[in-house]
Amino acid sequence: MTTSTPMGFGRMHRKEDARFIRGRGQYVDDVQLPGMLHGAILRSPHAHARILSVDTSAAEALPGVKAVITGETLAGLGLAWMPTLSKDVQAVLATDKVRFQGQEVAFVVAEDRYIARDALELIEVDYEPLPSVIDARTALAEAAPVIRDDLDGKKDNHIFDWEAGDRAHTEAIFERAEVRVSQDMLYPRVHPAPLETCGALADFDKVTGKLTVWCPTQAPHAHRTLYAMVAGLPEHKIRVISPDIGGGFGGKVGIYPGYVCAIVGSIVTGKPVKWMEDRSENLMSTAFARDYHMTGEIAATQDGRVQAIRVKVLADHGAFNGTAQPTKFPAGFFHVFSGSYDIETAHCEVTGVYSNKAPGGVAYACSFRITEAVYLVERLMDVLAYELGMDPAELRMKNLLRADQFPYTSPTGWEYDSGDYPRTLALAMEMAGYDKLRAEQAERRANGDRRLMGIGLSFFTEAVGAGPRKHMDILGLGMADGAELRVHPTGKAVLRVSCQSQGQGHETTFAQIVAEELGISPDDVDVVHGDTDQTPFGLGTYGSRSTPVSGAAAAMVTRKVRDRAKLVASAMLEVAPDDLEWTKGRWSVKGDPKHGATIQEIALASHGAVELPEGVEGHLDATCVYNPPNLTYPFGAYICVVDVDPDTGQVDVRRFIAVDDCGVRINPMIVEGQIHGGLADGIGMALMQLMAFDEDGNHLGASFMDYLLPTAVECPSWELGETVTPSPHHPIGAKGVGESATVGSPAAVVNAVLDALKPYGIRHADMPLTPSNVWRAIQGRPIRT
Ligand code: CDP
After folding, report:
1. What does the alpha-carbon distance between residue 87 and residue 322 come to, in Å, rounded to a whole number?
2. What pLDDT shows up at residue 1?
3. What ligand 1 atom has the least distance to the C-alpha of 664?
4. What is the whole-number distance in angstroms between the Cα of residue 724 and the centre of ligand 1?
5. What is the pLDDT of residue 706?
6. What is the DSSP-derived secondary structure letter of residue 579?
7. Which atom, in ligand 1's list, is nearest to the CA of 543?
8. Is 538 in the pocket of ligand 1 (CB under 6 A)?
9. Measuring from atom 16 of ligand 1, which residue has the nearest CA?
10. How confident is the model over 278-336, as pLDDT tens digits?
11. Which parts of the chain have pLDDT scores under 50?
12. How far apart, in Å, are the Cα atoms of 342 and each of 61, 308, 339?
């Protein structure tokens, strides 16, 4: 592997690593301000209960306590409720009822975090417990308690009904189809579980009226605007700083009550207030993902040509509808569920309901519910293969979109920009030695081998880079991103972007984009992000949108600077601009390459050493706002090989082959790292993870003892391959990749386990396929030969 610094795209060690591997990262909890106080949150022990009274007197009397804030205090300021990203409201601190276990009830500000925690014990809350809704399938029953009686006239737990696709056409195809299969499946509630929990440090300066909030947000600019809108603070008097972030995965997009409490705490005490949640608080109260009960149906011909898909989803959104996605899409991008296949028609209906569980519903490492969509279609393809007695790879190959069908408009209206799917699947099969694997499996089955071998495939298409402004906004903020580039007199550059890295290496790859476009070293480019006072507006980093949107902005702004450099060069070289040509890092006279100027020479000249033509401003800098014309559509073919021990139900992932196509790769090493992480995530979801609750709504997985994260022990040595189909509309042909592997891998793992269990006549089992779930599925079933 080369570690030398290229002049643009290529493998390059991450610039950030210099500080991360020395323990010199600067996370919110590392920020210390003089006179800083500490906050702690009192949380509800009940999933659903009326609050009869809150007595804070003993807590207030504890030495070292500076303030105790309750829902009532906030109600006095008009801040007891805050808007969610889905146009619902969420309690900042509960006033009337608590609606999930772990909900925020009171906030203590004290001299240190230990006193703040001790004071929580002294707050007396009188609760009247109420029956709760834990299983979404009971939420709409007549007898179900109404969770959101705070909403005017609300008499049930229904949030929304939403549909996409062509119902009539789909029904007609189903009616006359030769083969119809149907499968219920649950994508269980899981949690992004970033290593760094959430927190905020708020500092309100009474003299200047300026509020500074340090917080690990994936969308600093959106946070600033929302604080301004909700709290009525002038936007220019708010500065949101998002320093180093220890993983976001969608869970750090929204605003949590603790952030608002820290801000109010600082305003009330006149001191900086820091609040950091612990692991249990993070798992119990911050945004979950998935929780989709899905019924999928597929219509096909007897020889395996898929004609139509329809789906019904019951979406559990928890106690407040706080899901994060573009406003027009209440079920996110779930309607990309026709996947990578050439299907005539499709239809889906999604019903959202409230339950007594934490709110959120974030796109955990995926573009707004595409993980659920990919899992659904990829499971359905295997169920169809099972019923038809077909090889799942053959079935997929038969139905994949062909290269000549791009750009392709899906039955639910998405325009896939580019792809060559059969080539990618063929490569994955070749890398896996697919035929040999099937032969080995057949032989082992024939020999009655106790260990069950399974081979699972998935083929996914992601839709990333939200999004074209005319289709996509969040709370009215269009999803375009700004970028600003300044080249200093000596040719070193500073790029300012609105997106915010949470570990994806933007300081490296964005410098590489500038380097590629300007012909300077990435080491000569500093990338500034994560500070609203320092960067142009944009909607942040989630749904793998950084490269498709901010990355495009970075390329476009660099091209603007290059164009300015051309005008300066024409003055320097005394030739018309049209007589100049660009070779990396240099404008020179066409046909006379020796007669030219490097970007460094031009930068110096632009600051004054040359008389510039009329109308040409000095200095090499530019700004731009990039409004993407479409999303980008990365895709990939994954093959997983497992061995299952039928006596214990233990699944060992023996091999995992992943061929990804994310268009042009800026830094292949970073791309591979992103894929490694996403594949591990997929193993976690498929085999280990579940946010479980008992019937009273008690959270059963609020620590890493119960909520399991995959480690190197569970992961094989990944076998990666690539194909490159550039995005035709992205300036550098790149598509996003950050979440591809999380989106595509769970289905491959589950399909592999179910392939292993096929001799038992098991067609489907829900995630997580823990040893006990696998063992239970097998019990009482003789092996069919
Ligand atoms: O939005 P997020 O950063 O999470 O996802 P992304 O845009 O897919 O990028 C993840 C990382 O991979 C970034 O450092 C990208 O610049 C890099 N990347 C790349 O090098 N080449 C691509 N084609 C896509 C992403």
Report:
1. 8
2. 41
3. 23
4. 15
5. 93
6. G
7. 1
8. no
9. 509
10. 999 999 999 999 999 999 999 999 999 999 999 999 999 999 999 988 989 999 999 99
11. 1-4
12. 68, 9, 9
CA atoms within 13 A on the CB side of 773: 16
Cα of 737 vs centre of ligand 1, distance in Å, is: 6
Q: How far apart, in whole angstroms, are the C-alpha atoms of residue 138 and residue 734?
A: 44
**ipTM surpassing 0.90, yes or no?**
yes
Q: Is 547 a pocket residue for ligand 1 (Cβ < 6 Å)? A: yes
Q: State whether the beta carbon of 544 lies less than 6 angstroms from ligand 1.
A: yes
| Predicted local distance difference test score (pLDDT) of residue 6 | 58
Considering only CA atoms, give the Rg of the chain.
27
The pLDDT of residue 4 is: 43
Q: Whose alpha carbon is nearest atom 24 of ligand 1?
A: 736
Q: What pLDDT score was predicted for residue 366?
A: 87
pLDDT of 393-438, one tens digit each?
A: 999 999 999 999 999 999 999 999 999 999 999 999 999 999 999 9
Select from 670, 729, 732 the residue to mutate for testing ligand 1; criterion: most ligand atoms less than 8 Å from CB: 670
| Span from the CA of 541 to the centroid of ligand 1 (angstroms) | 10
Instruction: Give the integer Cα–Cα distance in Å for 696 and 228.
Output: 38
Distances (CA, A) of 280 to 286, 568, 647, 702: 10, 58, 33, 5
pLDDT of residue 363: 86
Q: Which residue from 514, 631, 666, 723 has its CB within 8 A of the most atoms of ligand 1, so it is best to mutate?
A: 666
Residues 219, 253: contact at Cβ < 8 Å? yes
Residue type, 126: D
Q: Which atom of ligand 1 is nearest to the CA of 735?
A: 23
**Over the range 202-240, which residues count as b (16 or more CB within 10 Å of their CB) and which as e?**
bbbeeeeebbbbbbbbbbbbbbbbbbbebbebeeebbbb
Residue 535 CB–ligand 1 contact under 6 Å: no
- pLDDT score of 475: 85
Distance CA 86, CA 760 (A): 44
Domains delineated in the chain: 17-23+480-626 (3.30.365.10), 31-130+196-246+252-285 (3.90.1170.50), 289-466+630-778 (3.30.365.10)
